[in-house]
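Entry:
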Amino acid sequence: MADRKKNKFFTAERIAMAIILVIIVLLFVYFAKDIMVPLFKMQMNGDTAGASEILMNNGVAGGISVILIEALQMVVIFISAEFIQISSGLSYPIYLSLPLCDIGICLGATIIFLLVRVFNYKSSTYERQRGAIDKIASAAQDRNTVLLLYLLFFMPFIPFGAICYYGSSTKLSYGKYMLTVATSAIPSVVVSVLIGQAGMAFLSSNIPLWLLVVIVIILSVLLFALIYWFMHKFVLKDTDKTPASLYYDIFFAVIKILHIGRKKPVIDDVLLNEAEAPYILLANHENSEDYSYLHYLANAKNPSCLIKESYCNKPLFKTIVKHCGFIPKKLFTTDFRAAMKLKTLIKRGHPVLIYPEGRISPDGRTNKIVEKGGEFYKKLNVDIVLAKIEGGYYVKPKWRKRTYNTDVYVTVKRVLKRSEISSMNGEELDRIIAETLYTDASLLTNHRYRQRDKAAGLERLLYRCADCGDLYKTAGKGNTLICRSCGAVHTLDERYHFTDPVKTIPAYYDAIRALEEKETDTLTLTSNVKVKVFSGKGKTLKSEEGILTLDKDKLTYRSVSYEFTIPTEKIPALEYKCGKRIELYHNSKLHFFYPKENPVQVARWALIIDILTDKRTAE
């Protein structure tokens, strides 16, 4: 009996809801010819001024049309809401345009609720949009539905209608659903309406064009600030500062947008299926954008990334590093904080990406790993994934400022299981890592690079003539490296090979190295430098000038007020930016040294340190 009554009630409910929908459809039909159709035509042409004229000329009918069109765009999804909202702002004072738009949104949300809950309707347009919603819902799965809907309404790339289809498919009651929709849509509507109001003031010559542009920018910034505050305060609190954060996804979404037009890397990650998360992902380091290639790997979870701490000196990137769960690391020095954060992320189930070299390859060959990590990786007791990047060196080598669009290949070469690692000692593990990740860009002979200025900036790496030995006389121009002292010319072909006996960039670099090795025992480098000293939080502590000196035993810096000495055995490698600066830590503080003369010499300082390190390890 109870089931029969329930079925009768449900049938009556469906009939009542159907009547409501028919009335709404009839309203659309009634307003279609004179108002709705012309408005849609103007929307296609972006004619907000014409739309405003129609609305104002039709009095109450114009206001009802705002409500109906706003509702329609919610149901259909792919019709933009901003057009009618801006047109409403142009036509009516804000105390009318704002409620008209919000009522329209609520009407559309109600129609969607009825279609989904009563008639089990599924929108094909929504189904195509739901991927982004499902991802956000998964990231915020520990939050209640109301907060999640607020978050979705604040995401600028998700249509309101798609959000309402999602909300209607949950168990949320109609009252909570409508209250959420009505309030969460207000910030976006206010911005659109105010833009319309500013446009009306501009059209009536009350404000100049530059002020209109400023108003639009300010309103947009305020909206995004509100979105940021809400996400940080309510939704992302538990995932913030981890790779599960939406900030992480947004960061890489922006990177992909910035890389539009570039070739996507060719990925071979079949072996990744053998790895059990969390794992350590190790890769060679060919250029500063390697992280974007590795993001295409089908990782079980978003991996964190161990990055050099100096990136945190930039305010924007410092914020990104913090909220995305990246791990700042002091290069070539002990950093317990980085190790502890890495362990914490691993315990929370997140993979971690590490470049064992610690620095970008200067000549296209994988750097020797001077900071051995084998024993540390063993203690983590997780799988290790070894991924090799090939072709990335020629996208933007360390010595060149310009980026080229070339083929990049990322291959998961090996997965070391925990059980396999436990039977190795640290030295054996380090050897396997180094051998597996080693690559030499000059051996990729099947590639062709047709750029006309491949040698531009090459003197910032090949700072010494391999023919006459003179320092700082080389110059890269077009595809040739020329010595201004002896006149020697070395030309790069389409494979980045020299068309002479030297053959390759690594071979030329080795020729310079051979010249330096003969002088290392008696050599003393001295340079007048400008210095910046940073705290661990990236704050500038000191800016001054002094003298930097290097011999085989020690590196010394002296100024009027500050000096220190570091034994070279405590400097396994030098990080540097070609043609600009040397980066070095002393007493946990980061020092940038900028040579005042011949800034290409920074590559020489780094090579001398490499030679000294190799001599020590060979003894």
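The chain has a mean pLDDT of 82.
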